[in-house]
Amino acid sequence: MKKADMTIVQDTREQLPLTFPEAKVQVATLLTGDYSLEHFEDKVTIERKSLPDLLGSLGNDRDRFMREIQRMQAFEYAGLVVEASMQVLYKGNWRSEITPQSVMGTLQALSAKYGIHVFLADNRELAARTVEGLLFHFLRKQYELHERLKPLLGITQT
Hints:
By secondary structure, the chain is of the alpha/beta class.
């Protein structure tokens, strides 16, 4: 199995879509998140946030964002990829009343309290590689599970 064999589903509302180095992309409406996998849209979701988007989501749009987080909890795997480094987040050089402590505290709570896997990516290219890699490893896990179940289901190799 290779990354080129998978199809990433990108939400139609994604305003600045990521460009993936290897995977194919299909644009469709996702109920939750920005990216998923073809045939696994109800199992895996990844939300992508630029720094301005994250700050908005933690400020005025916090209620909407937390409803999204609650929906994400229902998935087998849910991730949040933020296009910013930890250093940038801790420095807090932005025009917002949200403090770096609040941003980091919320991201830590998303992980520890809500089970959302949080990844920080310094730029869009690294964000794309992170999303692609996470989805690939989820798909490999599903494939390996399927292979282990074949004998139990009486499925023979052809």
